Amino acid sequence: MRRLPGLIVPLLTVPLLALAGCGGGGQTRTAPTSVPASPSPLSPSPDPAPSPSPSPSSTRNGLCVPTMYMSTAGRLAYLKDLSDSSHGASPAFFMTDSGVYLLAKETQRPCEAVPFQLSWFRVEMTRAGSGSSARYSFTYAPIESTTLSAGPRDGRVVGSVPPPPKGCSGTLSVLYVGEEITEDDLPDGLNMPGGSLDWSLVTLDADRALSAVFKPPAGASSC
Hints:
By secondary structure, the chain is mainly beta. 6% of the residues lie in helices and 29% in strands.
């Protein structure tokens, strides 16, 4: 458990537009309403070690991108580079408060399911003050870390729905490739959501982090 003494988090002080581009995931996205869950396996085999990682730009065959023999660094670069043609520069591999999604254009689609990691943390919130002057201190506590896989078809990844907030505890979800995300990788400050969303993107300094989403409890104002 990581305690952050004396740290305060302002309530509703960050406008929605300021959240775009946070967490290594590009623009803030809303969950698609008509995309089926991806049938990808939940526990893919570890990366084969002997073969070098192919570059996505040199292995594309016009139909899909071979990813089976990519190194960890190669998978990370590939997933970061995916873009969604129907949403401009928006990422095709992204996370919202309802899970992880793949919406890849055909020329970038993986030929097989691509493994990645997902970790969830409880964010215990303690409120001080009231109204616009309310501040929060918080404590991180790990919930679970798991390996999932995305693709080759579009959809929400099975098993990626985060645990819901409860009581005075929010949920921080971190999408990454490589070594497990620990409490030391988590940010020293969090912003409460603003605008029409009840969750916000979070920036992590760790290069292996693709995206992170914070969802506070619905009753945070009474904590």
